[in-house]
Amino acid sequence: MSVATEAVVLRRCGDPSSSQEPPFESLSLEQVTLTEPGTGEVMVEVATAAICHSDLSVLTGHRPRPTPMVLGHEASGVVHGVGPGVERWSPGDRVVMTYVPSCGHCLPCVEGRPALCEPGNAANAAGTLVSGRRPFSDREGMPLNQHLGLSAFARHTVVSENSLIPLHDEMPLDLAALLGCSVLTGVGAAINTAAVGVGTRVAVFGLGGVGLAAVIGAGLSGAATIIGIDIDPTKFELAAKLGATECVTGGEGVAKRVRQASEGGVDVAIDTTGIAPLMLDAYASTRRGGTVVIAGLAAPDARVGISPADLVATERALKGSYMGSAVPERDVISLTRLYRSGDLPLQDLVGDRIALGEVPEGFVRLHRGQRGRQLVTIGG
Fold this sequence. Notes:
CATH superfamily of the largest domain: Medium-chain alcohol dehydrogenases, catalytic domain
CATH topology of the largest domain: Quinone Oxidoreductase, Chain A, domain 1
Strand content: 25-35%
CATH architecture of the largest domain: Alpha-Beta Complex
Number of helices: 12
Structural class: alpha/beta
Helix content: 25-40%
Distance between the termini: 23 Å
CATH class of the largest domain: Alpha Beta
Shape: globular
Number of domains: 2
Radius of gyration: 20 Å
């Protein structure tokens, strides 16, 4: 059996070397067909999805993925139906989606690093579920690729049972969508990857959704100094509200200004921009013995030139952070508790609320620098 539904389909990616705007016209709301969930799979009625820079990077071609594709990877919803062999989930369960469906058996999973799951990431790169299936097809019957195992810009989607995290009944479904990517990534970069401790001096480069979440994470960890950096100073008021003790405008000489503001350099610099030159600024803003965490996804061909001699002589550490080095089953539940206690102000991260058919226009606004996470109200 199959289900008729609606989804936002990306027909082609842009050319990242082009100076022209991304091909926004290649995004459209379409009538699609969704097959019933197979073994180990779950159909979800999507409640809310958020538009993320990682989605935009697929559209621009900076993060190449197979097309045509149903985009969207930051979302919450309600279980609609389950496939054979699924015992954990039942219709009506409220869930957050996580974009790496960890298998639980490969070496990274066994080591407690499910974000690096080998089968999960291989399936994501191929545009399939971990089963190898592509459950969406268009009106002509052409298969549509899956985005990070979720394809959440749709009224219904089919995902691996391992792509879901249960939600507490008191957690609002709309705000819960943010826990699937931006908040998990930003808070996790500070707490899990950087291991920010009490009294630490932290700089966060980029004050978008992930960067603001990193500011929150640094504050939750007891950082004494939190410096937010962005080229748009209108973001500073919100950053300060969320815990930044000082803000610095990006641009030439920013590393020097951060070092001055932190009296010699920060202990931890977190880059959320995915822009290679800014990663060098983040490195230069740290003190001797400092740590640089790269949480922003750069283009695959981007390179950063760092002196190995300096790396050795100053004992700096350079670390990547994917999905905030999170264990989603553990961390999403912890983040939910923090929200319920008032320590995680998710509502402050929200910008516009839009309908599913407005997603293409939402990408235009994101590309042009609109502030706040755009939440797509779909169902629920």
